[in-house]
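We emphasize that the prediction below concerns an isolated chain of 309 residues; any contacts that depend on oligomerization or on bound cofactors are therefore not represented. The input was used exactly as deposited, without trimming of termini.
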Amino acid sequence: MNSKTMFYILKRILLAVLTVWIVITVTFFVMRAVPGGPFLGEKAVSEAAIAALEAKYGMDQPVFNQYTTYLHDIVFDFDFGPSLKQRGREVIDIIGEGMAVSAKLGLIAAFSAAICGIVLGAVAALRRNTLIDKIIMVITTAFVSMPSFIMGSLLLLLFAVTFQILPANGNAPGGLILPIITLALYPMAYITRLTRSSMLDVLGQDYIRTAKAKGVSGMRIIFGHALKNALIPVLTYFGPMLASIVTGSLVVEKIFAVPGIGRAFVNSITNRDYPLIMGTTIILATLIVIMNLITDIMYKVVDPRIVLE
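Result of the prediction step, given as a token string:
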């Protein structure tokens, strides 16, 4: 690894740290600027009770003091504070429990989508303008156009209610099958179209024609040259997509009652649980930043011709 590559990686790491700090700062001050408060509910609460709660959670301090304390706790202790609604529980524990489920769900969905999408995209490119290509494009267009909440509802109605093949509850045995399919369909369709487009572009390059003229086998051209170079746009999409799916799909987890981080995030918004909202937002943003960083570095591995600057 040369000095230019090391400098590029160091620069990207510093930019990643700066981005995470900006997210923490913006999230903190936006939540403080939201009208109302976390202790205002349906039942009337006296001003004295609100003042006591604010003092208990340190919300009676000047905003800048709250910010520095919050930043210190995150950076040095990885502590997002206690939940304001789930009394006696820490935000990091709630996020950890939700992430254990969401990570399992998201990783299976993401890699299933990537594998199926790359295979289907390559087949569509190699069989351009044939019946197979047209069928794949029609199906993927339908999946890309359909929001996840509609797809999830249709799968739930079809397989759980009508035919009763799979359970509707994410906690039941086999209950993660429908959520995984729902989460995987859109990225699979997008990756299919992305792979097909990139593959067609690569197959038209001069070095592919030169390889064919030299008598290189078709399989070696496809897997050794064309597909490898066609995966660069897929990598660009896969990194942030993986972070988003692993962190949890808000709607999908709600539909199938999956006890993941997505459902916890929705409940935190409904209950105005500010620490949990901020903690979940920061974790999601951090994962996306990390995946973007890894993706940028992976460019060099996939295509050594790329110069990192």
